[in-house]
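Hi support team,

I submitted a single chain yesterday and got back a structure, but I'm not sure I'm reading the token output correctly. Could someone confirm the output below corresponds to the sequence I sent? I've pasted both exactly as they appear in my results page.

Thanks,
R.
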Amino acid sequence: MGAQNNIAVVKEYMRIAYSPSENKGRSSVAHLCTNDSVFDAPTTFPGCETPLDYADSHAKVMSAIADLHITSFDIAFAKDGHVLLRYSAEGSHCGEPHNGIQPSGNQANWHAAAIFEVRDGKVHSFTKEWDKLHMWKQLGWMRGDEYA
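Hi R., thanks for writing in. Yes, this is the structure output for that exact sequence:
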């Protein structure tokens, strides 16, 4: 599979994972992942070990940030089965309460980077780098420097 096809697979995974209307958890992206896929982002998504776990966790986040969406793919690069994405996203706390914090309407925007490995046209690994505290501060989900 060529570089452009690998980028397309990864962008489709991200499109669904970041869609409040389409991401219903792991079943929404299972067709795009290998059976033995892995996920790594222990400081931002502890307990998530696969891209399917990430989709589950991200669906919960989007229940609070119901208008969350990717605004742009700032960088998309592929080589030898690996895809690097740097992307920008935004959303507001307009959905469900988050850890007891009622919706405030506060808006946030942020950037993140993801490295994927694609095998046989499916996501095999996904490593995410993201400063979630930057987003949480904007949404009002912090008490000083502590997570609320």
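A quick pointer for reading it: The longest helix spans residues 3-17. Let us know if anything else looks off.

Best,
Support desk
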